[in-house]
Each structure stands twice: as C-alpha cells, then as structure tokens.
Specification:
This protein is 22% helix and 22% strand. It is an alpha/beta fold. Helix 2 links the parallel strand 3 and strand 4. It is globular and about 45 Å long. The relative contact order is 0.18.
C-alpha cells in the first residue's frame, strides 16, 4: 500500500530521513555479533545493543527537532513491541512516518499506533525552492515513479553496501556519518546534481 503525502514549504527545513535503526539488535553490534563473516564490514562498532541504541537515540534527538518530521524506512528494532515502544518513546520528535521493513514483524494495528502512519511505500511531493517528487521504500529500486523525469528515490535495507542509481540514495543510519538521519537539505545537495535515470539508461534495451 502506497501513501501519498505533500510536504509544504514551511515544513521542508524540518524534514529528515533515515532507515535501519535495528534498535536492540545484538547481531549488528561488533561486541555481540555472531555474524563472523561480516565482522569489520557491516557490523557497527559498539560493544552491545544497549550502547548502540542509546547512541542512535542521542543522535536523532540532537539532529531532529521536536516539531520535525522523521521518515524511517524500515527495520525499526529487535525484541518485539516492548522494545519498539521503548525506542519510540525515547525519541523527542513528535511526528514519525514509517515504512515497513523486512524485519518489522509487529502488526499493522500496533505500527499505526506507534507511528503517525505506517505503509509499504510513500510518494512525497516536497514543495521546497523546487518541487520534488520522492519515492520512499525500504528496498532499492532500479526504476521508480517519474525516475526518468528526475524524481528522487530514498531507500534503506542495504546498510550503505549498494551503489545508488541515478537520483536515488541509501538514507540508512549506516550511510551517514556518526549514525544520524539525513536532513532534506543534505539530500538535495547530494541528489540535485546527479544525472537523472533517463540519462543513464537512454538508448539501452535488453531483449531476451
């Protein structure tokens, strides 16, 4: 299910994006992981999940204002609804729109209680100095709505391990310095000068 939202000009400066907090997840922490083949690669440099989660909470609270809007693109936390609620209650920002990730196994009813909205995908119209169309999904896409017209696509899931295509970008917490969300202005600075999807794929067809 896709949710369509319009972000007015007076909210653009308070707009933030992130993904893959993996709160309270022991396997993603260097000190407690059992992912031997991933050590030093995709695990995070924390001794335990409690330390990691406290750091993420602190980073979000320092960056995102209480009256801001945070979009979280999936994989909220480990440990069920109790940890999900504990993480949400620790964040000061009042408005969070969430995308369902592959590890988000809580019910839709609980998720819609926890967040301001919870959907598989969002399509935004952001009315900044330039009007931008943005597709939000947990997973990286090869093509998205209006990608050939220069629309943006923000995703997570890959923990900064997948190269972006065109005006797309991994906004996961691992993709930003010091594990913090991206502001809309940071995203604009990164994506506005990239080639659009149609420029990259023009004249290329694959017939099998």
């Amino acid at each position: 299910m896709t949710k369509y939202l319009k972000i007015p000009k007076d909210k653009v400066d308070k707009l933030y994006f992130s993904s893959d907090f993996h709160g309270y997840h022991s396997a993603i922490c260097e000190g407690t992981t059992r992912w031997e083949r991933f050590k030093g690669d995709t695990v995070r440099p924390f001794p335990d999940p409690e330390t990691m989660t406290a750091k993420l909470i602190d980073n979000v609270n320092k960056v995102v204002p209480e009256d801001g809007i945070l979009f979280h693109l999936g994989d909220w936390c480990w440990g069920g609804s109790e940890n999900a609620r504990k993480l949400r209650n620790a964040l000061h920002v009042r408005t969070i729109y969430a995308v369902q990730g592959n590890h988000d196994d809580f019910s839709w009813e609980f998720a819609n209680e926890l967040f301001d909205a919870y959907h598989s995908m969002y399509e935004l119209t952001v009315k900044g100095p330039k009007v931008r169309r943005v597709t939000l999904c947990h997973y990286a896409m090869r093509a998205w709505n209006c990608s050939h017209y220069g629309a943006y696509h923000l995703f997570g899931h890959t923990h900064a391990m997948t190269p972006p295509l065109g005006k797309s970008m991994d906004v996961g917490i691992d993709a930003n310095k010091n594990f913090r969300p991206f502001s809309w202005q940071e995203i604009e600075n990164i994506l506005s000068n990239r080639e659009a999807h149609d420029t990259i794929t023009k004249g290329t067809r694959y017939i099998y």
